[in-house]
C-alpha cells in the first residue's frame, strides 16, 4: 500500500473580517493551522500558537516587519527579495489559457509553495501541473471554494495536489474541510495478537460483502468484530479463489450484526453501511486509509464463529464458513477461515469498550 500523503489545507482569511468571531473561533478550534492573512490582519489579529501565518504583503516595508516564521505571499519581484532573506515563499498563479500553463509551471518551481487557479472547471490543467512538478520540491495547492472541490483536488491524477487554498465564509463548508483534513492524515492503529480459543459452525445467517470504490492489496482488509471492544482483521479478496476471479475491491466481512471500523474512531453496524459510506482499510502493520463503499452485498450463508483472547480481552468475529474467507495472521500472512484452530494467532485491534450509535462512550456495557 502506498504511504498516505500528508495534505495541507490553507484557509484564505483575507476577506474575513476580524470581527467575524464565529468564523475565526471555528478556525482556531479546528485542525486547520495554515491561514492566509493580509499584513494588516497580521498586525491586528490574535491567533493561537498553532497557527502558521501566510502573509500577503504589498511592499518591502511590510516584509521588514514580518516574523521569520511567516510564509510570504507576494508578487515575484518581492518574493525574490523575501527568498534572499530566508523566508519561505508562495506564489499565486491564475492560469487562463494553455499557453500560460507552461510558463506558470516554470514560475511555480522557483518557490516553496504555489497556489493555482484555473479559468475552466476541468481538472486537466491541475493534472498537468502535478505531472510537471512531481520531481520538484514546490508544494502545489489548488484554490477551492467547497469541501467537495477540495476532496476532488486531493484525488486528481491519483496523487492529487499537495494541498488547497480554501476560500469561503460558509461555516458548514469550513467545518467539512477541517474534517477532510482529519481524514487525509489518519494515524496508524496499534494491532495486537489474538490467540484463537474457539472456532465452531453456528448455522445459517446473513453475511455482508463490503464492496468499495477502491482496490486493496494482499496485505489489507477491514476490522470486523461482534463487540465494541475491538475487531479482527479480515482480509480483502485478493488471495486465490477457486473457479472465479479475484475481487480486490471487496472484503467478505462477516455477519450483518457485526461492527466495522470507520475513520475518526467510530464504528458502524454492517447493516448501516450503504453506497457512499466511509470505512477503514487496514494494513497488517496498522497503517490505515479510508475507502468509500460502493455496495453492500448481503446473502444467506453458513457462518463460522472465531473467538480469541487479545491482551486478556475476549473478542470474536462471525464470518462466512468457507475456505476462501481469510483472516490475517500475526505474521502478516492470511489464514483460511475453515482451517483456523485453537492456538492460532490472528491480528486484532483493541479499543475502549462501549459504543452508542457507533461513537465510543464511557458507560458500563457488557457484551458476550
How would you portray this structure in words?
Helix content is 19%, strand content 39%. The protein has 8 helices and 22 strands. The longest helix has 13 residues, at 171-183. Helix 1 packs parallel to helix 8 and helix 5 runs parallel beside helix 6 (124-133). It folds into 2 domains: 8-183, Aldolase class I (TIM Barrel, Alpha-Beta Barrel), CATH 3.20.20; 191-360, Endonuclease - Pi-scei, Chain A, domain 1, CATH 2.170.16. The chain is an alpha/beta fold and 368 residues long. An 8-stranded parallel beta barrel has the order 1-2-3-4-5-6-7-8, surrounded by 5 helices.
Helices, strands, pairings?
Blueprint: E1 8-12, H1 21-28, E2 34-38, H2 39-44, E3 52-56, H3 60-64, E4 71-73, H4 76-84, E5 88-95, H5 98-108, E6 113-118, H6 124-133, E7 139-144, H7 147-153, E8 163-166, H8 171-183, E9 191-212, E10 220-227, E11 230-235, E12 250-255, E13 259-262, E14 266-269, E15 278-283, E16 288-310, E17 313-320, E18 326-328, E19 334-336, E20 345-350, E21 355-356, E22 359-360
Parallel strand pairs: 1-2, 1-8, 2-3, 3-4, 4-5, 5-6, 6-7, 7-8
Antiparallel strand pairs: 9-12, 9-16, 9-20, 10-11, 10-13, 10-15, 11-20, 13-14, 15-16, 16-17, 18-19, 21-22
Helix pairs in contact: 1-8, 5-6
Amino acid at each position: 500500500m502506498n504511504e498516505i500523503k500528508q495534505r495541507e489545507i490553507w484557509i484564505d482569511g483575507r476577506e474575513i473580517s476580524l470581527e467575524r468571531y464565529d468564523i475565526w473561533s471555528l478556525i482556531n478550534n479546528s485542525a486547520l493551522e495554515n491561514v492566509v492573512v493580509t499584513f494588516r490582519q497580521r498586525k491586528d489579529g490574535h491567533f493561537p500558537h498553532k497557527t502558521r501565518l501566510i502573509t500577503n504583503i504589498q511592499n518591502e516595508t511590510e516584509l521588514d516587519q514580518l516574523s521569520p516564521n511567516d510564509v510570504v505571499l507576494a508578487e515575484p519581484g518581492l518574493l525574490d527579495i523575501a527568498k534572499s532573506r530566508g523566508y519561505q515563499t508562495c506564489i499565486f498563479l491564475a492560469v487562463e489559457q494553455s499557453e500560460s500553463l507552461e510558463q506558470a509551471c516554470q514560475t511555480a518551481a522557483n518557490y516553496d509553495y504555489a497556489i493555482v487557479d484555473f479559468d475552466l472547471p476541468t481538472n486537466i490543467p491541475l493534472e498537468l501541473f502535478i505531472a510537471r512538478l512531481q520531481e520538484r520540491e514546490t508544494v502545489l495547492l489548488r484554490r477551492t471554494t467547497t469541501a467537495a472541490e477540495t476532496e476532488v483536488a486531493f484525488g486528481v491524477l491519483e496523487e492529487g495536489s499537495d494541498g488547497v487554498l480554501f476560500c469561503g465564509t460558509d461555516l458548514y463548508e469550513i467545518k467539512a474541510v477541517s474534517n477532510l483534513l482529519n481524514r487525509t492524515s489518519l494515524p496508524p492503529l496499534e494491532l495486537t495478537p489474538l490467540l484463537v480459543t474457539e472456532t465452531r459452525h453456528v448455522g445459517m445467517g446473513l453475511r455482508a460483502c463490503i464492496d468499495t470504490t477502491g482496490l486493496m492489496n494482499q496485505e489489507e482488509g477491514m476490522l470486523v468484530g461482534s463487540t465494541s471492544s475491538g475487531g479482527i482483521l479480515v482480509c480483502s479478496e485478493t488471495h486465490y479463489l477457486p473457479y472465479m476471479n479475484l475481487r480486490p475491491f471487496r472484503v467478505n466481512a462477516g455477519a450483518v450484526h457485526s461492527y466495522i471500523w470507520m475513520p475518526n474512531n467510530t464504528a458502524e453496524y454492517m447493516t448501516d453501511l450503504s453506497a457512499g459510506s466511509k470505512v477503514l482499510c487496514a494494513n497488517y502493520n496498522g497503517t490505515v486509509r479510508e475507502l468509500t463503499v460502493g455496495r453492500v452485498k448481503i446473502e444467506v450463508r453458513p457462518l463460522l464463529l472465531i473467538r480469541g483472547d487479545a491482551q486478556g480481552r475476549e473478542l470474536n468475529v462471525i464470518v462466512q464458513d468457507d475456505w476462501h474467507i481469510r483472516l490475517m495472521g500475526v505474521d502478516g500472512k492470511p489464514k483460511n477461515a475453515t482451517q483456523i484452530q485453537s492456538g492460532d494467532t490472528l491480528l486484532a485491534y483493541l479499543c475502549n469498550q462501549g459504543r452508542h450509535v457507533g461513537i465510543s462512550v464511557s458507560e458500563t456495557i457488557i457484551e458476550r
